[in-house]
Amino acid sequence: MAPFVPDLISDQLNLVVALLLGIGFGAVLEQAGFSSSRKLAGVFYGYDFTVLRVFFTAAATAMAGVLLLGSAGLLDLDVIFVNPTWLVPAIVGGAIMGLGFLLGGYCPGTSVCAAAIGKVDAMFFVGGGLLGIFGFAEVYPKIEKFNDSTFLGPLMVYKSLHMSAGLFAFLLIAIAVGAFAATTWIERKVDPTGAPSLLFPAASHRWAAAGLLALGIGLLFVPDYKGRLLAKVSKPAFEAAHPVEVMSVDELAFRIVDREPRLRIVDVRDAKAFAASTLPGAVNAPVRDLFGKEWRDVLSPRHVKKVIVGADEAQERTACLLLRELGYENLAVLEGGFPGFERTIFQPVLLASNTPGRWDGDVKRFRESARTEILRMVQEAKASGQKKPKKEKKIQGGC
Predict the structure, then answer these.
(1) Is the model's pLDDT at 73 over the cut of 60?
(2) More confident residue, 259 or 5
(3) I need a surface site. Which of 7, 88, 212, 224 has the fewest CB within 10 A?
(4) Treating both helix axes as pointing N-terminal to C-terminal, what angle do 165-190 and 202-219 enclose, rounded to 10 degrees?
């Protein structure tokens, strides 16, 4: 899956990029008037809803961009960091911050922006925030239990509401348009002569609202890139039109025992099944994880034979076809899946050849020796600890 941000930015350069983005962000806040405590506090008193409009606009823009880039395969949504939720502490903290916002006229980000242009009240606000940080650190041991309570993990609102991301995007945009209209009416009631909305050209804003709603409707039909690709390769007609190479159990066992350097076993079963029993040298990559960048070094070498091992051949074929669609080559699936390997090699009762013949004795001796050697290699791998591909770092950020 192509990343929207390529691997060009190191951890050190990332700090420089963050500084430049921060300067740009501060400049935008200043141009939007967010260095004015009166404008910021206006949302609580009803005479200026610029903050609400900017936040809703930013949310709709970012959400639409993320969904469209994700659907096009240019952005991996699974690597975007989502802040974990501690429900009750978040509610209490939000109430405290909201009260500070109301009294001081700033939030932490806008206070720094205002302080940077020399506003004295913002400087005092920043100083108060720093004192609050030190105070929190001092009392933390006494409130640690409360601070860590009601942990819900990294929640996604649309998943919690059991709806699609597109439907949630449409509803949020519809709510935003309704909020823009409602706040315009409130502003003009509270301040009939000085409301910011009096400067709005009505016709162009109606067209903008219609365009936003049209965008929301379009997002209803934006497909998930990963889901779409998985559905495509799982269709029987697609599988029939795209045959895959099948490797027999005996061939894979021979290659393992021979310690073939140009062999890579990719186990696409879930982590629990992989931990219970696996093959020596295998790496665990559940099917949906194959989109991640961390697997490129494992799967990209063309001269290495990648053998897909799964719970059954159907799962293997889906994974193999998916890897083909992602651009990987030199792939094969294991005949009968991992259960087939267990029945043929690991279980003594089935060591003999299925069809008696002149080579039956040789096959039996090979499978017996392969069983002993492979089980020994598995134990060696467990004792030494297999090195896993470095998990792709989630992108963190936010205001």
Answers:
(1) yes
(2) 259
(3) 7
(4) 160
Query: What CATH code would you report for 231-384?
Result: 3.40.250.10
pLDDT, tens digit, 9 for 90 and up, residues 239-263: 889 999 999 999 999 999 999 999 9
In three-state secondary structure terms, 333 is strand
Tokens for 254, please give them. 């021979």
Eight-class DSSP state of 354: S
Which pTM value belongs to this model? 0.74
All CATH 3.40.250.10 domain ranges of the chain, comma separated, are 231-384
- Using CA atoms, how far apart are residues 19 and 24, in angstroms rounded to an integer? 9
List the alpha helices (DSSP H) in the chain: 11-31, 37-45, 50-71, 87-104, 108-116, 120-147, 157-160, 165-190, 202-219, 225-234, 236-241, 249-257, 271-276, 296-299, 313-325, 337-341, 360-384
Mean pLDDT on 338-353: 75
- The DSSP 8-state label assigned to residue 395 in this structure reads B
* Of residues 331 and 199, more confidently modeled: 331
Residues 282-291 have a mean pLDDT of 90
Helix pair 120-147, 87-104: axis angle to 10 deg: 160
Do 78 and 292 touch, CB atoms closer than 8 A? Answer: yes
Q: Say how far apart CA 321 and CA 151 lie, in whole Å.
A: 39
What's the confidence (pLDDT) of residue 350? 52
pLDDT of residue 357 exceeding 80: no
DSSP 266-305: EE-S-HHHHHHS--TT-EE--GGGGGSGGGHHHH--TTSE
Q: Give one word for 206, left, alpha or beta, with left for phi > 0 and alpha for psi -120 to 50.
A: alpha
Q: What DSSP string runs through 161-213?
A: TT--HHHHHHHHHHHHHHHHHHHHHHHHHH-TTT-GGGGS-HHHHHHHHHHHH
